[in-house]
Amino acid sequence: MKKSIPEIIFDIFNYSILLFWAVITIYPILYVLFSSISDAGRLMSHRGLLLYPLGVHLDAYKIVFQNPMILRGYMNTAIIVFGGTALNLFMTSLGAYFLSRKDVLWKNVVMVMIVITMYFGGGLIPHYLVVTGLGMRNSLLALIIPGAISAYSMIVMRTSFQSIPASMEESALLDGANNFSILFRIVLPLSKAMLAVMALWYGVGHWNSWFGAAIYLTKRELYPIQLIMREILMQNVDSQEIYKMTAGGGQDDDAQIAETIKYAMIIIATAPILCAYPYLQKHFVKGVMIGSLKG
Amino acid sequence: MSRTVVPGIVHKNSLSAFVNKAGKDFKKNWVLYLMILPVVAYYIIFHYWPMYGIQIGFKDFNIAKGYMGSPWVGLKYFQQFFESFYFGRVLRNTLMISIYELIFGFPAPILFALLLNEVKNRRFKKYVQTISYMPHFISAVVICGIILNFCVSDGLINDVIALFGGERSSLLQDMKNFRTIFIASGIWQNLGFNSIIYFSAISTVDQELYQAAIMDGANRFRQVWHITLPSIKPTIVILLILSIGSLLSVGFEKIILLYNPATYEVADVISSHVYRMGLQKLNWSYGAAVGLFNSVANLILLILANRISRKVSEVSLW
Description:
The complex is a heterodimer of chains A (295) and B (318). Chain A has 295 residues and is mainly alpha-helical.
């Protein structure tokens, strides 16, 4: 079917707008990336859009990777991400499995109990009091346990478990398996794709989170990387300190390199996620669909 | 004499019938109950215990005395909030930001999904889509760090302003700019991700409908207007309900990261107010009271929005 003129005009318009949006979306990150490897002095005096890096200098990255406070931040974040996600998957699977079974007397009671929490909660202050009351202040546990289950994820997981053919479980039951074996030997292995998506969801959430750490941690050694970055990026605290800590340099140099250090930190904090998400996009798109169909 | 022979077990009333049923169920499913135990414990400790703690909003809470020992003061803190000059300010800011977000941020993903759907080149479509989701995965701290960096007097945005002959200014220190920056960056971050659900709705439309329309001579615009849009209407309505239901719950993370005393007047929302007053300044009871007000108001809004939607269209959450 030959295209009419208005259609061609529309297509041009459409492609342009979408291309413009893609450029706008990706440009800030490119700007940060280019800035992080640019020469500090030239960067300071540069005005306007950065279309390419001003030289290739990895000094900022070297400084960041040698700074003990920053390294400890990454370690804390790693602990939170791996420990937290493991706990998330474990707890969410237990809940989803339970909710996906048939013929369980108290299942609906549990379901209602969980759904209520999706619409109503105690609020910030009561939550804070409970967590600190449990003695989790200044402990990484405060960042892992209170967020152990996302009700929404559990419902999505339940839907996924329900789609596993009952025949598989029935034959396992006939062989004398109990629910633990069914969960761990049949249901979970068959749900690898969905578990990967869940791990991504929870993992990214942990990687990016900062508020819990902000309110529960006062010891610097426990700060995850997002909190350290907050100090550096927003409270203009330590960028010059960082530079002084790991290298000598004149006063002017400090301020300039401090800028590139900020950019380098942003890239380091964001790069792993940006590399991972395209591979899993097929799965999380499906995850959103399933979630929306839950009704 | 006649006697009724009752086979099996005799139940005096339905309670004992129930207990019998529960016993059988427990025998059969005890492993499952064991499995769910940690989950239930988690919910009780971290969701229901805080709900129990909401009562401190009605008390003069003293940490030493605990929940039980602190004296009741009724609606004192609610009154304090409603009568303070903060009330009007935070309510107005919360509503203004939410409404602007709704007006600009709600249609944008839909439009994006519709436009991208019209693209025939699959590679272009895929690349644009993948790029569009990217900002969603970036953390709030990084996003705000970038925003802060771009908004300083010698930052990128000011460079562009100067290029067009405008005057440089520290953008985030000016109240006029806060809302725009906040909402625009929100759209930038979430447009792609929010469009996913519309994409999947669009993909479920029966292709035959399009064929039939083409045969009837409908051009692309008509196809979209008469087929695509109506098919995704339920999705749109449900998401609209959810958005209206969260009109009073502007997330505080980004607000806290971007605001400063110079912009409190437009930036302070209910949730950031709870954080600053309740947590930072240790007014526990006040914070709990305002927080409760927020939760209840949200719930009411959600129920209202759902009811209206049920009347106006057949689509609703429940």
